[in-house]
């Protein structure tokens, strides 16, 4: 609730400081001001800076603010097998919820099912919003997360719940299989 109030205040402050607002009362004959950022882009820049710090991703790699907003609300949610709520969630349900909220796209199935639904990618081909797949002590895909950029990804870890991790961490590096890009289909 406090965060929403804070964001609302930022928007109002951004509007109040907006060049369009400040110069609205000037004469039509006043010299043209150079193109300036709107309060919306100022607010987006603020959010990108905030998410860059929270998620450890370079600000230039943040393209979809809705993706980060969706993930943030799940951070710290405990892991629960077959869970689908803020009381507990597993890795595939987490990915499904993120795609539903950030992309308005419904994914279904567990991590192995999701692996079959994507275009496979190498680690160096990954882009924000792609999926990352792991075989953790199994012969089949057993874990999935959402790639953010800068080798960071969000996922529901069995031991820590929903967290941001690094693909270069020895544990994840050992079990990483492939990345995957969802092809959006319209119905």
Rg, alpha carbons: 20 Å
- Main CATH class of the domain at 78-187: Alpha Beta
- Look at the structure and name the CATH superfamily of the domain at 78-187: endopeptidase domain like (from Nostoc punctiforme)
In CATH, the topology of the domain at 78-187 is named endopeptidase fold (from Nostoc punctiforme)
- Extract low-pLDDT stretches: 5-30
What would the principal axes of the Cα set say about the shape? globular
CATH architecture descriptor name of the domain at 78-187: Alpha-Beta Complex
Strand order within the widest sheet?
3-8-4-5-6-7
| Helix percentage | 25-40%
Write the element-wise H/E pattern from the N-terminal end onward: HHHHEEHHEEEEEHE
Main beta sheet strand tally, sense and closure: 6 strands, antiparallel
Give a brief outline of the structure:
The chain is of the alpha+beta class. It has helices at residues 2-16, 19-22, 39-55, 65-74, 91-103, 111-115, 170-175; strands spanning 84-85, 88-89, 118-121, 131-134, 143-149, 152-157, 161-166, 176-182.
Describe what this molecule looks like in 3D.
- This protein is of the alpha+beta class and 187 residues long.
- It has a domain at 78-187: Alpha-Beta Complex (endopeptidase fold (from Nostoc punctiforme)).
- Helix content is 37%, strand content 20%.
- It contains 7 helices and 8 strands, in the order ααααββααβββββαβ.
- Strands 3-8-4-5-6-7 form a 6-stranded antiparallel beta sheet. A two-stranded antiparallel sheet has the order 1-2.
- Helix 1 packs antiparallel against helix 3 (39-55) and helix 4 (65-74) runs antiparallel to helix 5 (91-103).
- The protein is globular, with a radius of gyration of 20 Å.
């Amino acid at each position: 609730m406090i965060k929403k109030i804070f964001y609302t205040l930022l928007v109002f402050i951004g509007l109040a400081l907006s060049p369009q607002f400040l110069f609205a009362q000037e004469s039509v004959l006043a010299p043209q001001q150079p193109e300036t950022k709107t309060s919306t882009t100022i607010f987006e820049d603020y959010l990108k800076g905030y998410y860059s710090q929270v998620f450890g991703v370079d600000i230039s790699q943040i393209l979809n603010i809705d993706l980060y907003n969706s993930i943030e609300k799940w951070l710290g949610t405990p892991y629960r097998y077959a869970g689908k709520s803020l009381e507990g969630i597993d890795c595939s349900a987490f990915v499904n919820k993120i795609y539903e909220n950030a992309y308005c796209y419904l994914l279904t199935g567990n991590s192995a099912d999701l692996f079959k639904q994507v275009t496979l990618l190498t680690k160096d081909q990954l882009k924000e919003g792609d999926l990352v797949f792991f075989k953790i002590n199994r012969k089949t895909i057993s874990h999935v997360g959402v790639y953010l950029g800068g080798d960071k990804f969000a996922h529901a870890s069995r031991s820590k719940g929903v967290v941001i991790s690094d693909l270069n961490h020895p544990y994840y590096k050992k079990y990483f299989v492939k990345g995957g890009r969802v092809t959006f289909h319209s119905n």
